[in-house]
Amino acid sequence: MTTNRWTKEQLKLAFHLYCQLPFGRLHSRNPEIIQLAKLIGRTSGAVAMKLVNFASLDPAITSTGRAGLGNAGALDREVWTEFHADWEKLALECTLLIAQLRKQSDVEKVAELDVTEQEGLQDFTGETKRVMTEQRIKQHFFRRAVLSSYRGRCCLSGLSDVRLLMASHIVPWSDDKANRLNPSNGLCLSAIHDKAFDRGLITLSDEFEVMLSDQLKRNDDAFVAQIFLPLEGRKIELPEKFIPSTAFLSRHRNEIFLDATDR
């Protein structure tokens, strides 16, 4: 991989990394960019520039006046489109590509799973272990993509302790296979806000404003009054990348939000 022209495989790996890095860390000194550059035979500066090229295709970036480098080519756009069409396939494909470049046969090592995730796989063998490993890789990618987009902060509370943050699906994992790993189907929420969103106690409008269910507003618990009631009507902190899809928000309001049947 030493020619000047980027191959499609290289671009896939670059976009895979773009998804998982905060916008402010798309620079040549970033260790993850340096590592990828070594793997694909590019300079870290060239990889950083390619990531910023991808940023020029992201509406979340361009809507704020940041245009990236604006040099995205046809193949860049093709990779962007392919990822959006099948996030799961390409997340796994990129993990395997990295494994091949590192000459590693064990894909678990490439997934960079945390300690608890690795421990959870030790009791399984064969096909079951492979399926569970792939599942963890997908979940790991989605978590990194969502948390990096929101700068590692809960979009409702501002909480930044990563141990208490969740990559929450707007449309549940089980309800939309095609968008399970789509970062625009994700919100970075604290564990308590994630649970409330998952149970339909809260939702978001198309303007990204918090809506509380009547059940929650009628709750006289002091914790609810302190933590949830002040959120009503407040706009969430929007992500740097991958703005939440209004189509997904509409599905959450109509299919999960507890007050849906009352409207």
Keywords:
two-stranded antiparallel sheet, 3 domains, 263 residues, mainly alpha, 4 strands, single chain
Question: Can you summarize this structure?
Answer:
The chain folds into 3 domains: about 1-85, no CATH class; about 95-150, no CATH class; about 160-260, no CATH class. The chain is mainly alpha-helical. About 50% of the residues lie in helices and about 5% in strands.
Category from helices, strands and their pairing = mainly alpha
Sequence of strands across the biggest β-sheet? 1-2
Helix content: 40-55%
Give the strand tally.
4
CA-CA gap between termini: 57 Å
What general form does the structure show?
Answer: elongated
What's the number of helices?
13
The total number of structural domains is 3
**Mean of pLDDT:** 87
Largest sheet: 2 strands, antiparallel
**What is the strand content?**
5-15%
Q: Report the radius of gyration as a whole number of Å.
A: 20 Å
Which series of helices and strands comes N to C? Answer: HHHHHHHHHEEHEEHHH
Low-confidence stretches: 105-121
Give your account of this protein's structure.
The protein is mainly alpha-helical and about 260 residues long. Residues about 105-120 have low confidence and may be disordered. The chain has helices spanning about 10-20, 30-40, 45-55, 60, 75-85, 85-100, 105-110, 115-120, 125-150, 190-200, 215-220, 220-225, 245-255, and strands at about 165-170, 185-190, 200-205, 210. It is about 50% helix and about 5% strand. The protein has 3 domains: about 1-85, no CATH class; about 95-150, no CATH class; about 160-260, no CATH class. Strand 3 and strand 4 form a beta hairpin. Helix 1 (about 10-20) packs across helix 3 and helix 6 crosses helix 9 (about 125-150). The protein has 13 helices and 4 strands. The protein is elongated. The protein has a two-stranded antiparallel sheet with strand order 1-2.
